[in-house]
Amino acid sequence: MVFLPSATSATSAADVGLKRSHVDYSRYLSAEARSRLPNPIKSIWKAAQVKPGTINMGNGDPHHTLYPISEVNFVVPSIDEHDPVQSWRSGTGEQNIISSYKDELCALSLRTAFAYGAGAGLKDVRDALADLNDRIHSPPNHTVSLSLGNADALTKCFRLLGDPGDSFLCEEFTFSAMTNAALPLGIEWVPIRMDNNGLVPSDLERILSSWDEAKQGKRPHVLYTIPCSQNPTGSTLSLERRQQIYQIAHDWDIIILEDDPYFFLQYDLGMSQSTIQQYGHTRAMAEVLPRSFLSMDYDGRVMRLDSFSKIVAPGMRLGWVTSNSYFADKLDMLTDSSSQHPHGMGQAFVAELLGSNGWGVDGFMKWILSLCNEYQRRRDLFMDVFRQKVATSGFASAEVPQSGMFVWIKSGPTTNTADLMDELFRKLLNNGLVMMPASTFAIADRTGTMGSHINDRVNFFRATFVGTDETIRNGLATFGRTLEEFFL
Amino acid sequence: MDLSHHLSDEARNRLANPLKDIMRVTSECSVTDLITMANGDPHHSLYPFQQIMYEVPSVQDPSDSVTSWNNSGRTQIIRSYRDQECALPICNAFLYSRAAGLVQCKDALTDFTNLIFAPPNHHVMLTFGNSDGLTKIFRLFGQKGDHFLTDEFSFPGMTNCPLAYGVKWVGVKMDSGGIIPEELEKVLIRWDEAKLGRRPRLLYIVPVGQNPTGSTLSVDRRKKIYAVAQIWDLIIVEDDPYYFLRYDVPQTNCASADPDEFIKNFISTLIPTFLSMDVDGRVLRLDTFSKVLAPGMRLGWITSNKLFHLKLGEYTDSSTQPPHAFGQMFVTEMLSEHGWKIEGFCRWLRSLRLDYQNRLDFLLDVFQREVEPTGYASVNRPEAGMFVWIEVFFEKHPRFVRERCSGGSPVVARTNTECLLKELFERLMNIHGVVFMPASTFAIPENALWVESDGHVPLSDRTRFLRATFAGTEDIIEKGMIRLGKGLREFFQE
After folding, report:
1. If exposure means fewest CB atoms within 10 Å of the residue's CB, which of A73, A261, B36, B267 is most exposed?
2. Could A148 and B35 be called an inter-chain contact, meaning their C-beta atoms sit closer than 8 Å?
3. pLDDT category, B345, cuts 50, 70, 90?
4. Peptide bond preceding A62 in cis form (omega within 30 of 0)
5. Residues forming beta bridges with residue B78, ordered by sequence position
6. Which key words tag this protein in UniProt (chain A) (predicted)?
7. What pLDDT digit, counting tens, does each position of A336-386 carry?
């Protein structure tokens, strides 16, 4: 009963890509994703675009003359400051005004931004982010789709790839708010052992090679990882580990969900000033940032999730997913069948910010570098105070995180760990300090093959160093004091 | 009333955010000056926004806002600040928020909802617009094997969505006044659970300016439908994007400068909603800014009972998260003392309604001039919305075929209406250069198992309509109607 224009429908990019590379990605999809229909109205609308001069009375879109916003402008830091973040924090720096108009020339007009669009988001914004991707990761052959941030993107990927009864792989301590989101979909998690440097590749290999489909159901085909400033352990995967993990994913045919909101917050970078001067900030950053899974993705098995949440602000509700064009197409169909494309103001803001009237991509990288310096300062302060007030007692220790926002503090109890940690958490609370206990993030192993219960290893706290200096000093003083009370 | 049995397995199995437990324990803690090192947010001093400015129409002019907006009329500047007082400051707006959205925006919309709709006992939750809200609601209540009820002509952009996870639709017969309550009842009475599975328990409707037929449910029909819902324990999903675009109502006296007087008059021009009569808590109402501000706002809200409100909040926390700061800031300031206030927003709505009514009048004029004289089509005058439902008299076509009814399935077509419709649609698009949506795009597939055999005219024989919008410019409308007239002549006189 639905008319889809036949002769006039253009072949989708995904179809062309598929024929060219002869890769069948459909086998990774959930039953739901496979059976999802494209929006018939949008198909007709697309066909109507084909012939110029066609009068379209088919769509119920308000005319742009009725949008009651003719200009939005944003007062942002000037990127010409030597250290934009410091100048912004101290209020001494200059400001820039970034503007988007409905009826005047600008990078992305409100006329376009405020209209209905396709799930992937507006082309100008996708292109700008694809350009950023190219300069940082040089992805082999991927497509960008906009998201409403990484929680949105990730939970959509769960729906895209997971059927009830599926097992997905994850780090044994992980961002449980997200892994919990998969549970009502009938997905179960298989945790992978971690050490100080993140997930242990040999354990990933062990799980896959010893998997018994008769007893355990379908072998896992998805790995969820947070490779930089892993949440909660704060570790960053080395290049060697990433290559090992990618090889294992290749051997066992796994899709890698690379959740990377902290990617741009890296420390001890040792960036070359001369590179900055000669080639700009983007090139200089690209040379020192970690190699992403995306950058080595010749199989098209990586779905990379980037977000503006930690580098601009959480309320941006904007990010981008980079994946092979088939997955991008299917993801867009899911978006068209749910939340729809991102909001116009956010897209307009990003387009203007990264455009020639705004910071540009290099300016954005300069802001990010400035952010990294500020976060590094706080990290260093945290570790200093930690050494003085906490580590000296011997009741806790911590590695220096190379990126992100978290410190993974190892503390006392190694027997009866879960109960003692609970007691310690409450004691800290009574003394006026909140830190996240490791148990909040622990994924219990249900395969029975891990050999040790995670409850024996929850003797950690996740602490953040993104608060004020005062918070860091006072918080750690309280922590040190409380540990002494608890263990003595 | 406990309606928890309506929830899907997925909704029932959903866990609350584990970090919430920590937050609960933290909030129960009696210590003052609690230091938190538990979060993972950037500090607000690092948000690169000091101020955001929006230029909007001034709605305080006694003259019409929309007209003056497009004729260089007065404008108003609304701002969001970091360092100065405003309704939703930047430091608060850009934080991670939970579930229902930022409290300032939620409160502003709750005030508006309470004033305009007077819901008995409901709660407001923010969405990214009605598509977002609706598809979340579908997941909340639907799972594989379930059936949902809706108008027999409905909006596939939305009704296609739950098909992917095994929910099926039952289309209920309509007339020019929308869904027919007696037909709804018939479907429920005749439902054979042995053959079809669980009886449908959710009704999805667009009660004002229905998409695609343009119909509006009368107050009488609403009461009857609500009564049916009570007897058969249905959830009513009231999707109402065109609610404020209702025509031919006695005009509010604009010169009335008194805000309360204006609001009172404005409310009197509105039709009572399902929400306002929802004593059981079985209605979930969806409102959106898409048609009254802009589609790209991507902001709306769901009003529902406490249980559903909490469940939707949990689902939001497990998926999209609450909406973007930009949208929440704009709407909060717009409705506040610093913006239009509720009264000013109602003035804008009134003005929009007049503008769309002008466009409707224009279309009907041109239709009468260019199309009606052909004798091959007629059009309704919709009470509301953005669409007209053009009826095409296919029986006048030389190749129209009607088979004699000789028993067999009550849902199989007896005429070639659908084929002729498809042909007309393609000719109009490819030869005459005008696009209308054919009725078949919107038709919900019928199933003989739930259709009454006696005297039922198959839906395929009744798909004799084209949906046209009057939301475009006069130029588009004029050209479109001229091409339609010409196209019809050539089609019927081949």
Report:
1. B267
2. no
3. very high
4. no
5. B54
6. Aminotransferase, Pyridoxal phosphate, Transferase
7. 999 999 999 999 999 999 999 999 999 999 999 999 999 999 999 999 999
Measured CA angle at A43 (ends A327, B474), to 5 deg? 135
Given a contact cutoff of 8 angstroms between Cβ atoms, the answer to whether B380 and B214 are in contact is: yes
Give the nearest partner residue to A338 out of B135, B326, B327, using CB atoms.
Answer: B135
**Are B128 and B300 within 8 A, CB to CB?**
yes
Distance from CA of B76 to the nearest CA of A (A): 10
Note whether A55 contacts B131, CB cutoff 8 Å.
Answer: no
| Nearest-CB residue to A346 (from B324, B460, B483) | B324
- C-alpha A339/C-alpha B320 separation (Å) is 8
What is the full DSSP assignment across A296-346? G-SSS-EEEEEESTTTT-GGG--EEEEE-HHHHHHHHHHHHTTT-SPPHHH
Chain B residues lying within 8 Å of A345, measured CB to CB:
296-297, 324, 326-327, 330
Distance from CA of B5 to the nearest CA of A (A): 17
What is the Cα–Cα distance from A197 to A184, expressed in whole angstroms? 31
Of A32, A343, A478, the CB nearest to B327: A343
Q: Are strands B75-81 and B174-175 parallel, antiparallel or unpaired?
A: unpaired
Regarding pTM above 0.90, the answer is yes
* Alpha-carbon gap, residue B354 to B247, rounded angstroms: 8
B161 neighbourhood in chain A, CB within 8 Å: 337-338
Size of interface A-B (CB pairs under 8 A): 351
Cis peptide before B398 (omega within 30 of 0): no
CB contact under 8 A, A57 and B469: yes
**DSSP string of B325-357, one letter each residue:** HHHHHHHHHHHSTTTTHHHHHHHHHHHHHHHHH
- d(CA B280, nearest CA chain A) in Å: 28
Contact yes or no for B382/B388 (Cβ under 8 A): yes
Q: What integer pLDDT is reported at residue A2 of this predicted model?
A: 44
Pairing type for strands A319-323 and B75-81 reads: unpaired
Sign of CA dihedral B126, B127, B130, B136: negative
Q: What is chain B's alpha carbon radius of gyration, rounded to the nearest angstrom?
A: 25
| Closest alpha carbon to A156 in A316, A40, A343, A330 | A330
Is some CB atom of chain A closer than 8 A to the CB atom of B450?
Answer: no
Spatial separation of the C-alpha atoms in residues B358 and A398, rounded to whole Å: 70
Report how far residue A10's alpha carbon sits from residue B335's, in angstroms, rounded to the nearest whole number.
Answer: 44
Q: What is the DSSP string of B257-276?
A: --HHHHHHHHHHTSPPPTGG
Domains and CATH numbers, chain A: 64-97 (no CATH), 106-368 (3.40.640.10), 377-487 (3.90.1150.10)
Locate the DSSP E strands across B153-293.
168-172, 174-175, 178-179, 202-205, 235-239, 283-288
Identify residue B358 by its one-letter amino acid code: N
What is the ipTM metric for this complex?
A: 0.95
Task: List, as ranges, residues 340-359 from B with C-beta within 8 Å of A.
Answer: 348, 352, 355
Tell me the C-alpha distance between A414 and A458, whole Å: 9
Task: Decide if B298 and A340 are in contact by the 8 Å CB cutoff.
Answer: yes
DSSP codes, A32-95: HHHHPPPPHHHHHHHHHHHSTT-EE-S--PPPGGG-S-SEEEEEEE-TTSSSHHHHHHHT-S-E
Which residue in A43, A55, A106, A152 has the most chain B C-beta atoms within 10 A of its own C-beta, making it the best mutation to test that interface?
A55
Q: Which CA distances in Å does B276 have to B113, B138, B226, B304?
A: 10, 22, 11, 11
Tokens 């879960």 label which residue? A418
Q: Chain-centre distance of CA A246, in angstroms?
A: 18
The arithmetic mean of pLDDT across residues B302-330, rounded, is: 96
Q: Shortest CB distance from B70 goes to which of A65, A85, A472?
A: A65
